[in-house]
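Field notebook, page 284. I keep forgetting to write these up properly, so this time I am using the form the group agreed on. The chain and the ligand, SUD, are recorded exactly as supplied. Prediction of the bound pose follows.
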Amino acid sequence: MKTYEKAPAKINLMLDVLHKRPDGYHEVEMVMTMVDLADRLEMVELPRDTIIISSQVGYIPLDEKNLAFQAARLIKDRYDVKRGVHIHLDKKIPVAAGLAGGSSDAAATLRGLNRLWGLNIPMIELQELGAELGSDVPFCVTGGTALATGRGEVLHSICNPPQCWVVLAKPPINVSTQEVYTRLRSDQISKHPSAADMIAAIQSGSFQEVCEQLGNVLEDVTLKLHPEVQQLKEAMMRLGADGTLMSGSGPTVFGLVSKESKVPRIYNGLRGFCREVYAVRLLT
Ligand SMILES: C[C@@](CO)(OP(=O)(O)O)[C@H](O)COP(=O)(O)OP(=O)(O)OC[C@H]1O[C@@H](n2ccc(N)nc2=O)[C@H](O)[C@@H]1O
Ligand SMILES: Nc1ncnc2c1ncn2[C@@H]1O[C@H](COP(=O)(O)OP(=O)(O)O)[C@@H](O)[C@H]1O
């Protein structure tokens, strides 16, 4: 028996940090949605009680450090499943990019194994399992568009933003999510983006208003550490994007574009100085 799952990338349309919590995590308010750039997972049952991870790329861990491995082990332990699985990850989402590639693979593993092994675990319980693997995993379990609060695991589904093109550019730099949160001085944030205003913009169906409400307080930290991320944002706007923002802790920058005719110029212009550029649609 085998099954397949798609694991799409997420972008943060807004991200605000309220304060640091006693458990070390930060209380956040984020509006997140999915884009049509996805890893593909193939899950094949094994006759032995073991978990094997493989991938066509050589730059991700294939052992217990892999989030798909951790998701499979968690579901096996929690539901006492004495069966094995080989999970092949066809990676398309850039790694450590602020696009939740690993989290989405973990979420897809939870969904896929739930089906493969006929466990009938309700979605809400899969999200709770996901929260044990990472703050972004619960959102990735259900996808869509949502307001995420708490450390990111408390979700309220909202309607999808108006459809548009999303140009993603990942500069060749490494950003640690933990370091970005640690460096953020939440008492010194100059301007907090508003989740309520972003939700109102989405609900109004106005693409222009969504662009106006884009905001991410983690940009302050990552842009200071890596000025090339700011340059990428400026280049995107110069080339014709309607709005730009860094996703999550970065370093990927995305540009929202309403007119298809503008996309090739932005894509080709960015490719001039950034190797990893993608032009995709919102997953609505
Ligand atoms: C910043 C965001 C925005 O969507 O995404 P990415 O940039 O990672 O894609 C998320 O908050 C990242 O979520 P995720 O990558 O799942 O984080 P986790 O594995 O739970 O935590 C990694 C580290 O980030 C910090 N962390 C994470 C979430 C949070 N609300 N507060 C934190 O302080 C903690 O130091 C933690 O040790
Ligand atoms: N399935 C996976 N895909 C990608 N990275 C993974 C995976 N499992 C574990 N990792 C590790 O998780 C880290 C963060 O990867 P990723 O989820 O792509 O980042 P981000 O949350 O910033 O988008 C990387 O350093 C990578 O080595």
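OBSERVATIONS:
- The two ends are 30 Å apart (CA to CA).
- The longest strand covers residues 26-46.
FOLLOW-UP: compare against the apo run.
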